[in-house]
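Entry 14. Structure prediction run on the chain below.
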Amino acid sequence: MTPSQQRLAYIDWMRGLACILMFQTHCYDSWLSPEARQSPVLIWSQLGGTFPAPLFIFLAGVSFALVTDRLREKGIGRATIAKQTIWRGAEVLGLGLLFRLQEYALAAGYAPWTDLFRVDVLNILGLSMMLMGALCFFTGGSSLAAARARAIFTGLALAATVSLVTPPLWTTFRPKFLPWPLESYISGVHIFGTPQPWLFPLFPWAAFAFAGLAIGFLLRTDFAKRREILAFTLLGILGVAAGALSRLFDNSPIHLYAVYDYWHSSPNFFLMRCGLLLGILFLSFVWCRWGLAQIGFSPLIQLGKTSLLVYWVHIQFVYGGLSILPRRQCSVTKASIGLAIIFFAMLALSLLRTNWKGWRFTRKAARG
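Output returned:
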């Protein structure tokens, strides 16, 4: 197996892991009754639910860097690359807006019109991709090595900047002069008057994309290509160090912000999550290189190949009007059975999506 195939495998495996964690979070949150919500199952489910969004956005940055660097190696100009990547980001943003419209329509009048302007993960993913396209344009030019180095430095600098300015943008320096649909893209305020941690504004979520972009370009450096195992090992060690620094800074007597919220807007929490993402990246690489991830069929890799599709569809059967179980009325056992159904249904949908053309070709060949 070539390094590029390994790279796609571990990225797809991580996306598949994010899908699994997303399924269980949404299913238990949607279906558990008030009594069942007192179970430790929900607590652990919500803990696992803190990973999917950072994973998806971080991996978007990693993939963005890998694709951009390969295009540069083919001699494609930075203006052409920027046009392609920014346009792709605009498409994802458009899909996010279309998703909200679909959700509103399927709710059959029960959802408030304000839901049309809710900032979800697809919206911020699309905007982040557009910003990364601009970053790669301005850091491109000259030699490939120099362009990578500039992109790595700029990506890390922007990730740090976004995380550092998030607390005041959520509290003391909120852009209240903006209409709430626009302010929601900055602080996630929506219609509630204060930022909501369950929404996905640019601050801090775009920071994960910039961090992923820097890591992606780092993996394309000559050093990482020659010493791939060492490069991933160093990233894993860096992840442990980032987690330790997060706790050290959190316990520091020095306070930079008038309002400090470690678990939602703090740059220290962002640092912790980046450390966890790097740890998962290292373990995914190890699992896909020496583990059982690619012996036979890997459901996680398969789901990772169609993560956008299964995200889009499963929401309708968990939260939407097509929910397969009654919302907020189920026991843990019943919700778990529903989760299993969702998993196998989305896996089947994923297989259908990736094999449809091959199956059609086989059928035509058989008829011919």
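The radius of gyration is 21 Å.
Filed with the rest of this week's runs.
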